[in-house]
Amino acid sequence: MTNDQSVPPGIDTRLPHSARMYDYWLGGSSNFAADRALGQAFEQAIPSIRTMARENRRFLGRAVRYMAGEAGIRQFLDIGTGVPAAGDTHSVTAIVAPDSRVVCVDNDPIVQAHAQAHAESLTTDDGTARTVYLKADLRRPDELLAAPALTAALDLDRPVGLLLVAVLMLVTDEDDPWAHVATLLDALPPGSHVAITHPSQDFNPSAMADVVRAAEQGRMTLVPRGRGQVERFFGDWEPVDPGIVPVMSWHPESEPPTDPNAAYYWAGVARKNP
Ligand SMILES: C[S@@+](CC[C@H](N)C(=O)[O-])C[C@H]1O[C@@H](n2cnc3c(N)ncnc32)[C@H](O)[C@@H]1O
After folding, report:
1. Ligand 1 in contact with 218 (CB < 6 A)?
2. Does the predicted model carry a pTM greater than 0.90?
3. pLDDT (tens digit per residue) in 72-85
4. Which helix (H) or strand (E) holds 193?
5. Which of 17, 61, 125, 156 has the fewest beta carbons under 10 Å from its own?
6. d(CA 117, CA 8)
7. CA torsion angle for 265, 92, 192, 53 (degrees, to 10)?
8. In degrees rounded to 5, what are phi and psi of residue 112?
9. Distance CA 136, CA 144 (A)
10. Residue 120 Cα, ligand 1 centroid: separation in angstroms?
């Protein structure tokens, strides 16, 4: 499935979609003309948007490594997982904690189509599913949590690493993403961790306003949020040091970034205490 060659059922390629635009910025091939056109419009407003996408993906890797390492977590629930690609939750756990179970959730059928194409790499040698893909919607968290693919893979009595990375901006305020996230957090036991990134107007208000306008023209939902609104997603979970910070500043791997505000995402990880 490469650029415009074959289209899995259920996908309207005339409409741009966030999973495929993100794939385009990351240099992937699971995108179509409409995704590339809106992706380029976003890039005009924020010329560093590809760097932002890469930095967001790097944070995901650091957060998963933290959860698997310091927190000893072996079960991950990645909601808004995107098209399978290098540096995603499955590929990071495969290296740092191969005994992990990973449930990847997305509401875009192209994500499932890719997962089916790579089914072999998702199972262990004895055929046990290490990573499963589930088509479900963050806006229906009770349904998502009760899905047989999820309940078969995850033991919700043991700590879970929940990833909500670059997905909450795709849910409008009217859909109350805070309530949906609270339902997910309530369902997880103490010791669980949540990682969130969210694009924000706090870093460059006019560029973000231009992107929102481009999204509206492309009939796509995009809601940047201020730091206070992002903080509310974490509820009463305890922030892991250094709290909610610009995405490049969260546990940088080498030298601290020279301009941490260059990627317009807030990011943080928090833990549920008993
Ligand atoms: C920008 S991508 C982020 C991919 C990945 N989390 C990362 O940060 O590298 C956002 C993903 O969220 C998915 N998504 C959007 N709205 C969703 C919803 N309501 N429920 C589940 N997934 C959703 C999109 O299909 C897309 O794959």
Report:
1. no
2. yes
3. 999 999 999 998 88
4. strand 193-199
5. 125
6. 11
7. 10
8. -65, -40
9. 6
10. 23
DSSP state of 100: -
CATH topology of domain 18-251+259-271: Rossmann fold (3.40.50)
Indicate the length of the chain as a whole number: 274
* Tokens found for residue 56: 């967001």
What's the one-letter identity of residue 231?
E
Structure tokens at 255: 């030298």
The verdict on the CB of residue 202 being under 6 Å from ligand 1 is no
Q: 41-50 pLDDT, tens per residue? A: 999 999 999 9
244 lines ligand 1 (CB under 6 A): no
pLDDT of 124 above 60: no
Kindly report the average pLDDT of the chain as a whole number.
91
Verify cis geometry, omega within 30 degrees of 0, for the bond prior to 148. Answer: no
Nearest alpha-carbon partner for 25 in 263, 213, 224:
263
> Residue 63, SS3?
helix
